[in-house]
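Internal tracking record. Fields below are filled automatically when a chain is submitted to the structure queue. Please do not edit lines marked as system-generated. If the sequence contains nonstandard residues, flag them in the REMARKS field before resubmitting.
Queue: standard
Priority: normal
Entity type: single polypeptide chain
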Amino acid sequence: MLALKRVYDKASPEDGVRFLVERLWPRGIKKTDLRLDAWLKDVAPSAALRRWFAHDLKKWTKLQQRYFAELDSHPEACEQIRSAARHGRVTLVYSSHDTEHNNAVALKEYLNVRIAGDALDVLFCGVICSGSIALTAVGSTNHSTKVRVEFSRHLHTAVQAVSDALDIARAAADDAETVKHLEAALRELRRTLSRI
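SYSTEM-GENERATED OUTPUT FOLLOWS
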């Protein structure tokens, strides 16, 4: 799960892993005073993009598109955040006074989509693996109990992955179509699991 926090707000244990996601060090903050796990300068918008935006809110949507394109061209820049998010809460720390229109808000949106995609990858791998196990055991009555147990285990993994992706999609609250598809997938997985 991803959270946001200003550098001027006090750190707390609930923050989990904390990453500063600014290209420049925040004004008025000593490096020794800010509890961080890492300063990830490369996930921040380029200097040219920041200058172009100049915090003109009319350009916000276009800024996001250009920023996402920058991130897409350097996916390794986000890997440390995505990796940490697989294991628990991650807080993106930023310095902007505007809490609704800043690079951390845009980065969180970008990452939520990618993390949901990671969860769906796990889901599809689990379903494919379960299907392969079931197909291997077709015709073998001696292994039917083992197959059911293994298939059930993989479906539980798939249910958890879709549930996680659904939580992320609902939190992002900007893609109703994705939420609808994930809810349908979750219902179908649970229905299949109840028949085993």
